[in-house]
Specification:
Elements lengths: L1 H11 L5 H8 L3 H7 L3 H14 L5 H6 L6 H16 L2 H12 L4 H25 L7 H23 L9 H19 L7
Helix pairs in contact: 1-2, 1-4, 1-7, 6-10, 8-9, 9-10
Length: 193
């Protein structure tokens, strides 16, 4: 039922009527309300399953694996993130929740993305022999340079239907390379004692 509700919300927005949602799920409105006391409760469960539930905690561990070069780690992470998480349905749910001023997008960004960006910037700084910004806002903005580029790639391809013939893997590799090339100019010098 949550899968069908997520599909419906992704296509029609989050302010859909419960009668239409129930019909899309193949159940009565009464059954829908017996399982979810309100539409807000249903949206919350869809968020947990479709937005947060698709992020793999293992990605954090793999991003910290210093036995692998940072470029390879970033390419692996963003290829899988793009293929697994940044789907058309995920992006539309995320965008609709933002347009409805629900807390899904800020909650996800503050809890999950910010942590990933901290790891990405810290690991990049370590590999490149740079310092890590002490200002959390600076640190996350450096990380957003890459994360935003990959997220926008997904929006261009999956929302705007921009069918560039270059493979997504090649574009991600290009963004990773650009990020790593620019990182030394954006990160503080390492202080030696």
């Amino acid at each position: 039922m949550l899968e069908k509700a997520a599909e419906y919300f992704a296509e029609h927005g989050l302010n859909a009527q419960t009668r239409a949602i129930a019909a899309a799920c193949g159940v009565s409105q009464r059954l829908l309300y017996s399982l979810f006391p309100s539409k807000a409760a249903l949206i919350d469960e869809v968020y947990k399953r479709e937005i947060v539930g698709t992020f793999k905690a293992m990605w954090f561990v793999e991003l910290k694996d210093r036995s692998m070069h940072i470029e390879r780690r970033l390419n692996n992470f963003y290829r899988e993130y793009y293929d697994t998480l940044l789907t058309r349905q995920w992006l539309r749910l995320f965008l609709y929740s933002s347009l409805e001023d629900l807390q899904m997008a800020p909650t996800y960004t503050n809890a999950v993305v910010t942590h990933a960006l901290e790891i990405i910037v810290t690991e990049t700084a370590h590999e490149l022999g740079c310092g890590v910004p002490t200002d959390p806002a600076h640190l996350t903005e450096v990380g957003w340079l890459l994360h935003g580029a990959v997220s926008h790639l997904a929006i261009r391809r999956r929302i705007y239907s921009n069918d560039n013939t270059m493979s997504s893997d090649a574009v991600i590799a290009m963004h990773v390379r650009a990020f790593l090339t620019s990182a030394p100019a954006l990160l503080p010098a390492l202080e030696h004692s």
